[in-house]
Write a structure and sequence with these properties.
The protein is an alpha/beta fold and about 600 residues long. It has 16 helices and 22 strands. The strands form four sheets. Strands 8, 9, 10, 11, 16, 17, 18, 19 and 20 form a nine-stranded mixed β-sheet that branches. A six-stranded mixed β-sheet has the order 12-7-6-15-22-21.
C-alpha cells in the first residue's frame, strides 16, 4: 500500500522506512495547500497519509473519491468529524518522532490486513465431522486433541514411521529433534531487522562458519530460495516490530490454552519431565539489560536476580559467572517438557479414544482442477472427498503447498542438539542462554532425563538455513556442533559428556532437526474450500515456536472448521506482507486462488 509521510523528520531519511519504495517522505507537503496535497497523493496512488495536522474536510472527500478502496490517515493535531468519508480510517499519533510514525504505519498495516480478511467471501465449512490431519508433529497432534474434544472423527497421516523406533533421520522436526521443548512468552521471536536505523541481517548470505546461517554448502540457491531471502531482507523494522507483537499475542493465547490442558488432561503431562520456570542468562551486560527491559515491558518477568543471587541459588552456574562467561540473568514464566514423552502420551491417549493413525503414509500431491480448487489428495490411504483436511507440512511437505499462496514460503533452518549430565550442576530450571555474536548465540538448555532415568541437560542451539529441503552441508553442521560444544564448555567447564543410556533412541552425540521457517517470522495459516465442500487448511512455518503456539493454532483450526473467526486467519495469512507492500493499484487484489481469503 502506497503511503505518503509529510511530517517533518530529520531521522526518517536515515531509517529503513523508505527503502521499500511504497512509503514516501514529502515534508514540503505538510503545510502545502489542499489542492497541491491532493495532486501529489493522487499521482502517487497513495492510500495512506501521515501528517502533522488533519487536512481539510474537502480534501478528504476528494481523496477518497479518487483513490479506490479504504484510505488511511494519521495525524498529530486534529479531531475526526462526523462529515468524514465512510471509506476513511483515521486516528492520532502522539508526535512526529520515528517511534510514533512507526506506530501509525503499524496501525495502517493491521487495519489493511484485517479489512482484507473481512472483504473476502466467507468460506463455508461443510457439515461433515470428518477431519484428516497430514503430519504428526506436535502442532497437528495438539490440533487432533482439540478436534477430538469437539466431536470430530479424526485421522492422522504421517510419512515417517511411528515415533521412537527408527533412526532420527527418518523423522520430521518434532520427532527428529531431541526430547526437549520450551514455552516462554517470547518463543518464535522475529529475526528480521527491528532497528529503525539498521540494515537487514545477512544471515542467509553467509555460511555458518563465517558468522551467517547458510548451511547449503556450494549448492547455488534456487529461485524460490532467492525470493525467500529477498523477502526476509525487505521486511522493514517498523513492520518487523508489529509482526512480533502479533506473534507474542498468539503465544500469550497459547499459554492460557496450555494452562487449561494441564488442568483438564493432567495425565498427558505425567512423566514428561515437566519443569516450570525458565532462567534466562546473558553473556553480555548490555544484552542482559536490554532483555530485562523488554521482558518487563511484556509483563513476562518472574524475578530479577543479581549475579550473587544466581550463583547462590544455582551453584552449578558459579564457575560460568566466575570466569565471565555469564554476566546476568532473570527468571521468566514458562515451562519445558520432554516432547517425545509428551507426544507419545498424546498419541496413546488419542488412539485409545478412536483417533486413527497411519504411519509411513505420505501424501504425495494435492490435486487441483483448472480453477485451482482442491479436488483430492494422492495418498495410499483414501481421504474422504468431503473431509476437512489440515496439513502441517514441515519443510519436507513442499508439494502440499503447490498451487496455494503458501508455495515457497516455508523453508528450513536447522538447529543442533547435544546432551550432558545434570548430576553435577543439578539445575532445577531450564535455561535460555544469549551469547551475542557467537555461532550458536541462542541456546536452550533443557532439564531432562534419559532412558535410564538419569538427570540430563539437553543443549539445543544453532541456525543453519537449508532452503526448500532438509539437506545440510557437513562442514556447516560441524560448525554448529563445535559452537554447541563451546557453549557447554563455557557454561559447565567441569562437565563431561556422559555415556549413552540403554535406550537406543537417546542421543548423546550431535544431531539436528530442520525447523519450518518463514521469511517474515510470522506463522502461516491458509484456508480454502475444496471442490467437494470441505476445508483444506495449511498451517506451519512457526520458526522456533511450533510447540509453544500449538494450542493457539489448534484453536484457529477449530474456528475455521466451525465457520468462526480467529485473528490468526488474517494475521498469519501467507500473503500478509506482499499484499500490503505492493502499490495501490494492485494492493486490492493480492495473488491467491479464488477460494482463498486473507
Amino acid at each position: 500500500m502506497k503511503t505518503i509521510i509529510t511530517t517533518p523528520s530529520s531521522e526518517l531519511p536515515y531509517s529503513d522506512f523508505l527503502r521499500g519504495g511504497n512509503i514516501v517522505h514529502l515534508p514540503d507537503l505538510d503545510a502545502a495547500p489542499a489542492d497541491e496535497l491532493l495532486r501529489e497523493v493522487t499521482d502517487h496512488g497513495a492510500r495512506g497519509l501521515i501528517m502533522s495536522r488533519r487536512p481539510p474536510e474537502a480534501f478528504l472527500q476528494r481523496w477518497c473519491e479518487r483513490i479506490p478502496g479504504t484510505t488511511f490517515l494519521s495525524y498529530v493535531t486534529g479531531t475526526p468529524s462526523r462529515a468524514a468519508p465512510r471509506d476513511l480510517v483515521e486516528f492520532n499519533h502522539p508526535d512526529g518522532g520515528l517511534s510514533s510514525i512507526a506506530t501509525a504505519l503499524s496501525g495502517f498495516e493491521r487495519r489493511f490486513t484485517l479489512q482484507h480478511a473481512a472483504a473476502q467471501p466467507a468460506l463455508s465449512a461443510a457439515g461433515t465431522r470428518e477431519a484428516v490431519l497430514i503430519g504428526a508433529g506436535v502442532v497437528n497432534l495438539v490440533t487432533a486433541l482439540y478436534l477430538w474434544r469437539n466431536g470430530y472423527r479424526v485421522t492422522v497421516l504421517d510419512r515417517s514411521p511411528a515415533p521412537g523406533g527408527e533412526n532420527w533421520h527418518r523423522y520430521g522436526c518434532t520427532h527428529a529433534g531431541d526430547d526437549a521443548r520450551m514455552f516462554t512468552f517470547t518463543e518464535m521471536d522475529g529475526y528480521n531487522n527491528q532497528d529503525f536505523h539498521g540494515r537487514p541481517p545477512t544471515y542467509f548470505r553467509l555460511p555458518v562458519d563465517q558468522g551467517g546461517w547458510l548451511a547449503t554448502g556450494s549448492r547455488p540457491p534456487s529461485a524460490a530460495e532467492r525470493a525467500w531471502m529477498d523477502e526476509f531482507e525487505r521486511v522493514p523494522s517498523w513492520l518487523a516490530r508489529a509482526y512480533n507483537q502479533d506473534v507474542f499475542a498468539f503465544t500469550a493465547e497459547a499459554f492460557h490454552e496450555w494452562t487449561a490442558l494441564r488442568r483438564d488432561h493432567p495425565g498427558l503431562f505425567e512423566d514428561v519431565v515437566l519443569t516450570d520456570g525458565v532462567l534466562r542468562l546473558y553473556a553480555d551486560p548490555a544484552h542482559h539489560r536490554a532483555a530485562l527491559a523488554r521482558h518487563r515491558a511484556l509483563g513476562a518477568l518472574t524475578r530479577e536476580l543479581t549475579p550473587e543471587q544466581l550463583t547462590q541459588e544455582f551453584p552449578g552456574l558459579a564457575d560460568a559467572f566466575a570466569t565471565g562467561a555469564l554476566a546476568g540473568g532473570f527468571l521468566v514464566p514458562g515451562f519445558t517438557v520432554g516432547v517425545h514423552r509428551f507426544t507419545s502420551r498424546l498419541v496413546t491417549f488419542l488412539q485409545e479414544r478412536g483417533v486413527v493413525f497411519h504411519w509411513e503414509t505420505p501424501v504425495h500431491w494435492v490435486r487441483r482442477d483448472g480453477t485451482g480448487a482442491v479436488t483430492g489428495f494422492d495418498c495410499p490411504v483414501p481421504i474422504p472427498e468431503d473431509a476437512h483436511v489440515v496439513a502441517s507440512p514441515g519443510v519436507d511437505g513442499q508439494t502440499l503447498l503447490m498451487g496455494s499462496p503458501c508455495e515457497g514460503r516455508i523453508q528450513g533452518v536447522l538447529g543442533g542438539w547435544m546432551r550432558i549430565s545434570n548430576e553435577g550442576a543439578r539445575l532445577p530450571h531450564s535455561l535460555k542462554v544469549g551469547r551475542r555474536g557467537h555461532v550458536t548465540e541462542d541456546a536452550n538448555v533443557t532439564v531432562a532425563r534419559d532412558g535410564d532415568g538419569r538427570p540430563t541437560l539437553i543443549v539445543g542451539s544453532g541456525y543453519g538455513y537449508t532452503g526448500v529441503g532438509t539437506d545440510a552441508d557437513e562442514a556447516q553442521l560441524d560448525a554448529i556442533r563445535l559452537g554447541i560444544m563451546d557453549t557447554v564448555e563455557r557454561l559447565f567447564p567441569d562437565q563431561a559428556h556422559r555415556s549413552a543410556s540403554s535406550r537406543a533412541t537417546d542421543n548423546y552425540d550431535f544431531k539436528y532437526c530442520v525447523r519450518p521457517w518463514t521469511a517474515t517470522s510470522l506463522g502461516i495459516y491458509h484456508t480454502e474450500t475444496t471442490a467437494h465442500g470441505g476445508l483444506f487448511v495449511i498451517n506451519g512455518g512457526h520458526n522456533t515456536g511450533g510447540f509453544a503456539q500449538a494450542p493457539a493454532v489448534a484453536r484457529a483450526v477449530l474456528a475455521s472448521l466451525g465457520d468462526q473467526p480467529h485473528p490468526m486467519h488474517a494475521l498469519y495469512h501467507p500473503e500478509r506482507f506482499t499484499a500490503f507492500t505492493q502499490d495501490a493499484a494492485s494492493a486490492t487484489a493480492p495473488r491467491a486462488p479464488a477460494a482463498s481469503r486473507i
